[in-house]
Amino acid sequence: MTTALLTDRYELTMIEAALRSGRAHRPCVFEVFGRRLPGGRRFGVVAGTGRVLDAIADFRFGTDELDWLSDNGVVDEATLQYLADYRFTGSVHGYREGELYFPNSPLLTVTGTFAEAVVLETVVLSILNHDTAVATAAARMVAAADGRPLAEMGSRRTGEEAAVAAARAAYIAGFSATSNLEAGRRWGIPTMGTAAHSFTLLHDSEEEAFRAQVESLGAGTTLLVDTYDVRAAIETAVRVAGPSLGAVRLDSGDLPELVREVRAQLDSLGATGTRITVTNDLDEHTIAALRGAPVDSFGVGTAVVTGSGSPAAGFVYKLVAHRGDASEQWMPVAKKSPEKVSLGGAKRGERLLHDGRALAEHVLVDDDRDGVPEADEGTPADGSHGGTVRPLTVALVRDGEIDERWVGPEGVRRARVHHAAAVAELPLEAFRLGRGEPVLPTVVR
Amino acid sequence: MTTALLTDRYELTMIEAALRSGRAHRPCVFEVFGRRLPGGRRFGVVAGTGRVLDAIADFRFGTDELDWLSDNGVVDEATLQYLADYRFTGSVHGYREGELYFPNSPLLTVTGTFAEAVVLETVVLSILNHDTAVATAAARMVAAADGRPLAEMGSRRTGEEAAVAAARAAYIAGFSATSNLEAGRRWGIPTMGTAAHSFTLLHDSEEEAFRAQVESLGAGTTLLVDTYDVRAAIETAVRVAGPSLGAVRLDSGDLPELVREVRAQLDSLGATGTRITVTNDLDEHTIAALRGAPVDSFGVGTAVVTGSGSPAAGFVYKLVAHRGDASEQWMPVAKKSPEKVSLGGAKRGERLLHDGRALAEHVLVDDDRDGVPEADEGTPADGSHGGTVRPLTVALVRDGEIDERWVGPEGVRRARVHHAAAVAELPLEAFRLGRGEPVLPTVVR
Questions:
Q1: What is the CA radius of gyration of chain B?
Q2: Which pathway does it operate in (chains A, B) (predicted)?
């Protein structure tokens, strides 16, 4: 399955015009960044990077695509020939997946000819804007849950393929599992889920339904107890499954009082080890409001997959430098319209730390290099402010070769581990849920 | 490409448990409906129906899927055997794609055995919740644009596959075109787009860029005029392309004053036929604010593809009836938890009209039929309230056979035409942009 047509038409018409003007093969640097954090958040979480690398690998114009472009007069013959041979041969550097970001963090830098780099714009932004919005929201929920596990179960509330990506992004940001089977298959994420209200309604009684589920899934299963009367359902559940019942789920259980009553009832029935899981349209605020209640785990749907009010991260993909014809020098470029001033030049990021605590986001403009930010994973080095600096920009693709560390289920696992380490560096104020300013200042050096 | 794993795990564990309890093959009716309209909207627009039918056709568990389910212990051997033979053999009735809907409108009714119908829940809801949210937002933008054409160009602000679906939904709701090439290929939607700021920045001057574009795309092209100075750019644009220049695009042009100045300058240069297209983060409110300005067309991105503040329609998929064992009678069922009372029984919808103007949404519970709402397209018939009634529920799938009228590019075209006719029936108050109540009352009869 090619990703080549998941692309705005103007990327191709620009290639056509640039082929004619002789500028199509100018070496260029494009940068992905956001001018602000979505929704007054204190920090953002980069997600989608591994999927971007897959999309670049699959970006090929086959016969079907070329025929359609030709039949519909999208571009001329010379452009079709260019596209037929398209392979990305450039380099991509950027923040590791799972890393945190702030306004103007240089998240991704694509270096290549104008034509080969510009044509990736749409699909790169689609993936990063979506996945990062989900991960950024998910990280707030993880913080609000205060160590209790969260499952992503919002597949039904977003596009069917976006659902798979959302499960992946939430997992990177610290969720423990997903309801989505394809996310399990494709990305190695643990899947969960037992039964819906329809299962109870199908049977002639709640007891019959519970017996059927326990016989099939064992006493360790999670029984949904709010189809009719919660109190009666819990009594039935413990009678049917015994006190070793795994868990009960409250799909209308966002009330701390209800959760406390359920806990007391379970304990009185001897089911002291039975966990309580709560679902029903939770978001970071309702999760935080359940902080004192005896909830053992949360299931989150709509809010996480739609970015909890900020469904797109707002990243842009801008040309920041190209090589002139006369010299081999990189020339920084930027548009100059009011409101949207951009900073030219290829960039890389560093995080300034003091005693392991993040203090600032440093953005370094590197005009004297070869257009490619060069930095690698590594331990923080001594910084100039008495603290240490942790390099944030790593090589993702070199001369068309994708670094396999960042893709597939292994890339997801790596991103999740890295994310947890990056979040651990944040100051406490990062976890305030109200709208506010970024918790770290971005300093352009 | 199968859709079978775009599914929540619990759909499969419910099948396993129901196979054991002997209830898996009970005839059931599931209904898709929304308890309210998203975001205080006055009406909703059904979209995604054709894609749901495709997803049902592609819902097959192949060797890869079965192996993964088996290796991961998701379900037992008997369930794997059931899934290996899975074909949907039931019936689906529902609102036509493009139709309007209101709270509790019975949008889709799936009739089949419990197992074959429940397993479709996740993918059916993913598609309808996403596509309908986009179409519902898009219809408000179309109304705000007051007859001027709108192009959808938000691919970069939503998941890469969601982008294709969003383009389709916006087109059904009255948008004229999309930037997304795959939406053009897959659904026959007109595509548009010429150049971005990077194209101007690539060249050594704006004039060089404009010349390249006009040479390649002709004088009828749209030149982007706000990379540097708008006034100077327009002067250059008309000098390069001549007064027959097709259009200028303002990507920071949500100011009526700016648009008026641009119009005056174009006219003074003799480019009286050159159109003005405006983009920059528009939504229904900023479009409405440009009503008096000489804008010729709009390009809308983030707001339309993310449902303008309501990214998911909030539909649910509920078991509303099943057959008992003792009798052939359909038994309406509904859960009884507080807050979420549902109405049991299979249903169909009708719209009450008077002099061609919509007055109310009628929901009819049909318990005495064969569990399947039967109605067809047709001219409105005499109603009981002095008006006429237009049947809203049509057959989409009969005994596993998909009605081809509703799928593919032809289905999209049909939905767009039907949508325009349905919107024309609405009273004027439907087009108020502020939050409010549904413009038609839903009457359950």
A1: 25
A2: Cofactor biosynthesis; NAD(+) biosynthesis; nicotinate D-ribonucleotide from nicotinate: step 1/1
